Amino acid sequence: MTDHADTFWDRLDDINSGMLGLTEDPRLVPMSHYVDRENRTLWFITAKGTDLARSLTGSKPAIHVVSDRGEGLYARIHGRLALSTDRAKLDEIWNAVASSWFEDGEDDPDVQLLRMDLSEAEVWATGGNIRFLFEIAKSKVTGAKPDMGDHYSLTF
């Protein structure tokens, strides 16, 4: 992997959520993601009754947008989203946050796992909050434009 890819995965792993949706539908919904770097996949836990889960038949083109100033990552991530019945993956990623949504925990019949196989991402990687403030202050002293980090695309 390139340095850009490592930066992307490392920072994405430290971010809790983003906005997920299908590219055919302009509505995006907030969702927590779980990073699977090795398989270039994001996982999501949702309820079977959500509009997003009900709209999935097979896999469909999807988008996940993350924006986290603290981690210095802004990204538009594309891939294919599908329903999954991978119980081992659900066991692996299940946590206290997910359990807050389901009365019977991991065994709740409404639990639905989603798998997003990534195809590409457009990424803006900055230095985070402190770097941003430094760059703004430096620009005021030197008159130079602030360096806001790297902008790049990744293909998975």
UniProtKB/TrEMBL annotation:
<dbReference type="InterPro" id="IPR038725">
    <property type="entry name" value="YdaG_split_barrel_FMN-bd"/>
</dbReference>
<protein>
    <submittedName>
        <fullName>Pyridoxamine 5'-phosphate oxidase family protein</fullName>
    </submittedName>
</protein>
<dbReference type="Pfam" id="PF16242">
    <property type="entry name" value="Pyrid_ox_like"/>
</dbReference>
<dbReference type="InterPro" id="IPR012349">
    <property type="entry name" value="Split_barrel_FMN-bd"/>
</dbReference>
<feature type="domain" description="General stress protein FMN-binding split barrel">
    <location>
        <begin position="3"/>
        <end position="147"/>
    </location>
</feature>
<dbReference type="InterPro" id="IPR052917">
    <property type="entry name" value="Stress-Dev_Protein"/>
</dbReference>
